[in-house]
Prior knowledge:
It is a single chain. The protein is α+β, with helices and mostly antiparallel strands. The protein has one domain (22-140): PAS domain (Beta-Lactamase, 2-Layer Sandwich). Helix content is 29%, strand content 27%. The protein is built from 4 helices and 5 strands. The chain has helices at residues 12-15, 37-43, 65-76, 123-140; strands at 22-26, 32-35, 81-88, 94-105, 111-119. A hairpin with a 5-residue loop joins strand 3 and strand 4. Residues 24, 26, 30, 55-56, 58-59, 63, 68, 71, 85, 87, 99, 101, 114, 116 line the site of flavin mononucleotide (FMN).
Amino acid sequence: MAITPINEEVTFEDAGVKGRPIISKTDLKGKITFVNSAFAKLAGYPKNELIGKPHNIIRHPDMPKAVFKELWDTIEKNQKWRGFVKNLRKDGKYYWVEAFIEPVFDENGTKIGYISARKEVSKEDKEKYESIYREMREKEL
Ligand SMILES: Cc1cc2nc3c(=O)[nH]c(=O)nc-3n(C[C@H](O)[C@H](O)[C@H](O)COP(=O)(O)O)c2cc1C
């Protein structure tokens, strides 16, 4: 069942989501509760294969563990997180996003989950973070 990564990029344009926000919501543990159509298209899944799955369904093996640790440390403190993420599609190809994640509260002020919006990454930033993350991963091995 594991997806074999292919070293081939899919851009927002390739996926037909140019200029569209890429939205997902999770519960407190990171289980997906909502995705918009643009998210599903970019990740290469039908929506129903994403809802109820852990958000790491699109985790790419090139991503350093430390990035996600910092992400969770930040949002669990009820702060907003922003960062660059390389994601794995269902077909094994990858796509880059700049992600913005923050907690969601109900009307009583109880935290009920998280929401994230993502946008396109420039070619320069993709190259920059490919190399930063490669170095970070080498240190994690
Ligand atoms: C709202 C929200 C959005 C997330 N978006 C992504 C994402 O786009 N890609 C990703 O790899 N992880 C994302 N994560 C982090 C995953 O929950 C997970 O921590 C990460 O994929 C690493 O997997 P692991 O924690 O099993 O090591 C998101 C988490 C939350 C709460």
